[in-house]
Structure formats: C-alpha cells, structure tokens
Amino acid sequence: MTAAPEDRENLTYSLFGDAIRDLAQTVADDGYLPDIILSVARGGLFVAGGLGYALAVKNLHVMNVEFYTGVGTTLDMPVMLPPVPNVIDLSGAKVLVTDDVADTGKTLKLVHDFCVDHVADVRCAVIYEKPHSLVKCEYVWRHTDKWINFPWSVLPPVVSRAGQVLDA
C-alpha cells in the first residue's frame, strides 16, 4: 500500500534543522536536562545527533529496534536487535529517548519500558507524533496523521541488500 503524494508530510533537510532547534528549545524551556540521549535507530539517530548538539549532551546511546518493513507494513511487535544497551549504563540517569516519529508508538513504548525501571527519569522527543500513538511524547515538533517522507529515507539506497524492502 503506497500513500499518494498529497497524503504525505514532506520533511526536507533544511526543515529538519529548524525542527531540531525548535524541539531542543522546547526541551530546554521545560527545564529538562537529560544526562543521556537514547536514540531509536535508524530515524532517531538523526534526532539524537541534532538534539545532542543543541542541548550540549555528549552521552548518546543507540537502541536498534526493527518494526517497519515497508510503507504501512510492520512486524506484529517491535523487536530489539543486538547490541542491546546495558541498563547499568543508564542507571540513575535522566534519559531522553529520541525517534523521528511516534506512529503506532509501539517502538517508543518498548524502549521507554526498557528504561523506566532503571533510570531516574525517561522522556520522549520526536519530530512527528501521530494521533493514534500509544505513547504521548513529552516533546513533539509537529502532530500529523499523514505518512512522512523523511529526507534520509525518501530516496532508495545506493546499494541493494538481500531481503531489503526498497519500495517506499
């Protein structure tokens, strides 16, 4: 199932820069000073890097979670892929979990629940949040119900790999 172009939100790299600065300002205005930014790979890596610079946080971690297999197609449940962060590295910290979008919210819920019993505080920051997301993020740049064309995933890869879905 492919969404028609008019049913899509289009984020450019330039607009992404504005989104990150706005999102960082929202976090700062809230007085939240995270010790760690935990990005959900892959889309959350871009958000984490930008927020890391804007919020002066150098301690960035990555959690690789697989859920989407194509446009509008997912696994039944998100799956953590190795290497899974050691909870001792997160112990007692204020953690900001980042992703590009809270769509179903299942991925963010998995990561949030992984952290919640081990950290001092965990909050989520995303560029986009959809109305049906299970997780209501503390920090959101925009709300939308459209499919999002992100600048890092709108074009096909320059290489093909076995089993990779190239149709977006």
TrEMBL record:
Matching InterPro entries: PRTase-like, PRTase_dom
Signal peptide span: none
Organism, scientific name: Crossiella cryophila
GO molecular function term, any single one: glycosyltransferase activity
Gene3D superfamilies, sorted: 3.40.50.2020
Name of protein: Hypoxanthine phosphoribosyltransferase
Keyword Isomerase belongs to the record: no
Domain of life: Bacteria
Coiled coil: none
Residues of the Phosphoribosyltransferase domain: 16-154
Keywords: Glycosyltransferase, Transferase
